[in-house]
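2024-03-11 09:14:02 DEBUG pipeline.ingest accepted 1 chain
2024-03-11 09:14:02 DEBUG pipeline.ingest length=312
2024-03-11 09:14:03 DEBUG pipeline.predict start
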Amino acid sequence: MLDCAIIGGGPAGLTAGLYTTRGGLDNVTMFEKGMPGGQITMSSEIENYPGATGHISGMDLMIPWPEQCQRFGLKHEMSEVSRVSRNEDGTFSILKSDGSIDKAKSVIVCTGSAPKRAGFIGEDVYFGRGVSTCATCDGFFYKNKEVAVIGGGDTALEEALYLAKICTKVYLIHRRDTFRSAPSTIERVKNSPNIELIVNAVPEEVIGDKMGVTGIRIALKSGEIRQIDIPGVFVFVGNNVNNQVLIQEDGSFLCDMTQWGEVKVDLSMKTSISGLFAAGDMRESAPKQVVCAAGDGAVAALQAIAYVDGHH
């Protein structure tokens, strides 16, 4: 039986693997069906990870992490986990897609989330070359330039305010004329002199050249097409939480979740189920930054060690 099963091999999962093995758990396996590293490996440049100075890509940042973990005994199994369930004796069953089952005393789930796409032409083509889903990560590259933000929820408005401090102008494009955000946030956006609201509008196409994005075409309610020449487009239309492994046979979730499908955790990354922890982008209120996911993984690991030690 495993002391700890870690589901997912991004920054949270790898850090959890490092801390559990180095902290004395003997039998720890990280289940990651692909290469470890997570979403951040898609980023072309990282400037805000502490200690990572100079030009470094997300892939370069993550390359040494698995080797460091494996030095302390972390096993990486390239299997897809279908479901995590709890047994009557308090242990957990890890059902894999090939039908085999592993048992574990504790589980840390770090399966992440993926930003939803808005679905306009060129969105995938220029992703990472002018189309972004993270203002904190990429906003600085557009300092003193104009950008567009697509979306109408809390995240879109908060990120538009963040970008307005860096960029000369932010075009906020929303398909309706009302916003799904806190009234105080809406008020701040409306009072920001360098945010232009473009409502009842749908992005049709992002255009560019081999260097990256050069503009966006928007379909207005009147039927006309407006083109804005900008080098950056930020898309905030929600996230898909990768929570499938927590769905039980009867369709319910193993632990308490938010209405958006994120795992409810306390400050110790504990879920509502004893011995089950969640870390990284899949937990509620996740900042979706590598440094935060890594911190989550460390916290969850320390708690898992204490849990296993107390249930010998």
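2024-03-11 09:14:41 DEBUG pipeline.report The chain has a mean pLDDT of 95.
2024-03-11 09:14:41 DEBUG pipeline.predict end
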